[in-house]
Backbone:
């Protein structure tokens, strides 16, 4: 009987832990129960825990645990955030044109559009406070100045003076779990500038999270702020300095974010789908074929033709709001087979490198340019998902 | 339809025949050379093909094929599609331990993860092993060659007490039910 009691205890506690609510402040009995029986758990879970219990959990949307790793995880289950999974999305909602200037200050929107940004992913920031932006600005500018002055024996004074601006771009966050976007600008006087010249922006970057996966964001411990997408523009030396300051101050990690061919295809379809509302003017796709020497194919499609093809693919459910990955694949396959019919070159043997329309352009290496402010939320949502999926944990 | 049949011909003495099917025809040559180089005790014949069905002209002179390996490069979608269409030309008897999938560039960050997921699902539905190989370095090619030789010798019946079907119950690819989710450990 004791055994049965222990088993129920353990299955209960496993339920608790799986829901990511495990805290070290659990009442002592449960705590002891979990630690005391790890070895027994291994044997018991394979024999006595009812199979349908475990399976029911596996089918739940957010948590994945195979039977074996169920057991391993319970030892380490006190930090929630480890027990969450993200799905590679198979369908998205169609982008709606939204005048974002109603939500976001138009000047700030102007800062974001029409520029080409390099993307990186960021792991969650520890104890980042949106209220402390002014101290952060001062610390970052001091850090940059000290790094730049390393090795110089003499104080150089004004020429290397960097001024950093941290600001918040309100209104881009979609859900209440998204953290507000933070925009960083580094201004500096040009060398040999006259004394009264204003400082110019030499580097800008922004950290954002738009419609991030809710289960993941909820499972983060409260001290962490997740702003997984970093867009930067400016000299690489300054980018490296900013990243190292963030890494030192907030204990996070940065990494390059590429946009793989599936996501480029998503962007191409989403932008083509916007054609009736706003003329995309052209749809250009660039492929690289692995021939010797490597061949680049730039395939420009007239927007009306692209729209008709997209519309015919979407024939089945034009009333529904969501676009599925199959429709995207059919759209791209249609373009590829048309190309094959004319040139006998099968583009699926190569890799999609870049797509661009009048609404924006996106490159495989992680560069994105958004030209129109109306569709910013959709694009940022896609990029946030990419960043969250790429992030190592 | 000209199906490739596994048991319609007699086996050779101390011989094993392997067929490497690859759309791009790059990795199979290196792999073939390495496989032949590393096997000393058994006569290994490596046949290369771009896709199935194999040409009818060689039907008579072709020996019995013990193992068919589909090489899929994850960097191109065409590779996967060509392997899928070639599968139709294999007799079902092959799927009892005489077919193997070999993927390259599985670790490549620029490859969409969905492609590996779909290859895994295909291999799991056919109960075949899925090997990942590194095709750019000599060590990678050698490792892949050794693994293929191990499976080949069993499939050709040269290992006592082990058959292809028996081995495939251990080596076959399995797909957890939640494979569409990203792994966070």
Residues:
């Amino acid at each position: 009987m004791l055994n049965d009691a222990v088993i129920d205890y353990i299955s209960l506690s496993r339920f608790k832990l799986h829901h990511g609510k495990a805290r070290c402040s659990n009442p002592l009995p449960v705590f002891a129960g979990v630690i005391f029986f790890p070895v027994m758990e291994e044997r018991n879970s394979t024999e006595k825990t009812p199979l349908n219990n475990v399976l029911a959990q596996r089918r739940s949307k957010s948590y994945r645990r195979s039977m074996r790793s169920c057991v391993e995880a319970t030892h380490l289950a006190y930090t929630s955030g480890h027990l969450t999974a993200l799905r590679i999305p198979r369908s998205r909602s169609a982008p709606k044109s939204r005048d974002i200037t109603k939500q976001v200050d138009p000047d700030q929107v102007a800062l974001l559009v029409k520029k080409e940004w390099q993307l990186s992913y960021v792991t969650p920031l520890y104890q980042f406070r949106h209220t402390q932006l002014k101290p952060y600005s001062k610390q970052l500018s001091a850090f940059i100045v000290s790094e730049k002055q390393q090795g110089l024996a003499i104080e150089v004074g004004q020429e290397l003076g960097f001024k950093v601006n941290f600001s918040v771009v309100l209104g881009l966050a979609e859900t209440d779990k998204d953290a507000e976007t933070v925009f960083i600008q580094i201004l500096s006087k040009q060398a040999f500038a006259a004394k009264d010249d204003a400082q110019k922006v030499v580097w800008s970057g922004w950290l954002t999270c738009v419609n991030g996966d809710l289960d993941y964001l909820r499972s983060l411990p409260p001290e962490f702020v997740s702003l997984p997408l970093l867009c930067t523009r400016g000299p690489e030396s300054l980018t490296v300095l900013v990243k190292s300051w963030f890494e030192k101050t907030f204990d996070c990690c940065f990494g390059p974010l590429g946009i793989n061919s599936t996501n480029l295809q998503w962007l191409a379809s989403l932008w083509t789908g916007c054609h009736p509302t706003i003329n995309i003017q052209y749809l250009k796709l660039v492929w690289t074929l692995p021939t010797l020497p490597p061949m680049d194919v730039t395939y420009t499609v007239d927007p009306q033709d692209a729209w008709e093809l997209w519309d015919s693919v979407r024939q089945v459910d034009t009333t529904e709001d969501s676009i599925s990955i199959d429709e995207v694949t059919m759209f791209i396959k249609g373009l590829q087979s048309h190309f094959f019919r004319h040139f006998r070159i099968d583009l699926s043997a190569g890799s999609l490198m870049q797509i661009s329309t009048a609404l924006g352009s996106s490159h495989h290496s992680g560069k994105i340019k958004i030209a129109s402010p109306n569709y910013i939320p959709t694009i940022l949502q896609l990029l946030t998902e990419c960043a969250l999926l790429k992030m190592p944990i | 339809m000209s199906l490739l049949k596994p048991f319609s011909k007699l086996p050779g003495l101390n011989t094993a025949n392997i067929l490497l099917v690859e759309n791009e025809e790059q990795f199979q040559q290196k792999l073939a050379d390495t496989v032949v180089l590393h096997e000393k005790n058994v006569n290994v014949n490596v046949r290369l093909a771009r896709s199935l069905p194999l040409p009818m002209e060689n039907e008579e002179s072709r020996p019995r094929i013990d193992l068919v390996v589909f090489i899929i490069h994850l960097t191109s979608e065409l590779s996967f599609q060509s392997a899928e269409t070639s599968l139709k030309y294999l007799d079902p008897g092959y799927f009892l331990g005489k077919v193997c999938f070999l993927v390259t560039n599985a670790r490549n960050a620029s490859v969409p993860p969905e492609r590996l997921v779909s290859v895994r699902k295909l291999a799991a539905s056919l109960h075949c092993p899925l090997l990942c190989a590194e095709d750019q370095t000599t060590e990678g090619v050698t490792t892949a060659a050794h693994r293929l030789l191990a499976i080949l010798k069993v499939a050709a019946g040269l290992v006592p007490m082990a058959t292809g079907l028996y081995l495939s119950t251990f080596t076959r690819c399995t797909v957890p039910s939640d494979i569409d989710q990203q792994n966070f450990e």
The first helix of chain A runs from residue 2 to 18.
